[in-house]
Amino acid sequence: MKKLFFLLIPLIPLGLFAQNDMYANINLQFRFTNPGARAQAMGGAFIGLADDTTAILANPAGLANMTSTTLIGEFSQLERDNNIPFYSGTITQSGLQDFIFDLNERDFPESVSTIPFLAYVHTKSKIKWGVYYAEQAHFDRTFETNGVTIPPFRGQTYLDLNQFVFFSASRNFIELQMRSIGGSVGINLTDRLAVGVTVSYNDFQYEGNTSLLVPDFAALFPDFSIDPRVLDAIAPFVGQAASVIDVDGDDGAISANIGLLYTPNERFSVGFAYKQQPEFDYDHRTSGLRTDDLSFDPLPVENGSAVFSMPDSFGAGFSFKPTDVFLVTLEVNRVMYSEMSDDFHTFFGAPNDPADNRQVVSDTTEYRAGMEYILVNLQNPLSLRAGYYLEPYHALQNEKLDTQILFAYTNPAGDLALDFRNNAFLQRFAEDQNHITFGAGMSFGQHFAIDLAADIADRSESYSLSGIYRF
What we know:
By secondary structure, this protein is mainly beta. It has one domain: Outer membrane protein transport protein (OMPP1/FadL/TodX) (Porin), CATH 2.40.160.60. Helices cover 7% and strands 51% of the residues. The protein has helices at 2-8, 37-41, 55-58, 217-220, 228-234, 402-407, and strands at residues 70-80, 83-93, 99-107, 110-122, 128-145, 147-150, 165-167, 170-188, 193-213, 241-265, 268-276, 279-288, 302-309, 313-323, 326-335, 359-360, 364-375, 382-391, 397-398, 433-444, 448-456, 460-470.
């Protein structure tokens, strides 16, 4: 009976660094795109163009070539499916290390409305400068899981209670935001080469919770005979939180963007940008119920602090204007997502795991392309835009294969380290996203313009509206 509950609820380690492996963080992916509906409609490929106010974040060197003092505001609507691919189901073994994943997925849709960008750029001097506000990250979601069971393998004789292995039912939520304010300057070093820098103060808000629930064993394992004394002991606590993780962060930090823009002629330009992202501190708290002796007494509350690292990035792009009304832009970005898993420590791993599994994320390369065509023979010129970009999967994943984790590892005494299986099977869920973008812009006289954009992917949709006033 005592061993049964060791399998039931993973013990709660005390440490937590960088991103963490609480269920609420599973499939957590940030999307850093250049601001403005115009850039979004062209796939976000703007480093090599950088010819409007949004250059403040895309490539601040572009400010040096602006000729009109400009004010811009943007409104954005984001729709996410928030798909949870392991909501419920069963995993069975078909070979030595071969498994059949009979998982049920479920969507927990979310909708986020924001004002992601406001900026003013002043061009009435040799040194062009600007100020801005941006919401560079906004991630909200609430979801639950109903538990995934793993029927016995290695035979009943190896460990009688091996059938009681499962992913716990859970309740989870995350609210994460990074808001920035800052200033930018752009200077022409020569007639063809410009340089710019943006310095920002970033406010980080992070709140999250994962609660692993005491299960109803009779419902979870209907085909197995369970000691009635065990079921009677569990019954009053079914559905209560057995292990709880809370995270809460409110911190600020400085960051900087640096850019270069080379414009050999009016038809062609090439740009380079480096974005240094900040690190933030946040607090965590763990609590739960004691299960190893069936007492269900509260465990001591443990508190600590940790670091959440946003990834730096390097980008290069170019724009080509073969005619006065047609424009093509291309961009490549290297995003250092591995910084998000530095010093990673797990809540739910096996403390005696000899393989030392960690959850990590690799650096990725993102490709973006866009185009713009202007219909000038209209009372109000209309710009038509379209683009594409590849968003590689960049959430944390286990270093070990899913099948290795399912097969479990043994501790130094030779016993199965079954709590190691509480690592989520993140490799199975890794999927790159293709984004198709499109939009339009219209000018109303010399001073006012609006831009619209849409970004459509398999699991998300976003829409933006920008208003521009030129003094």
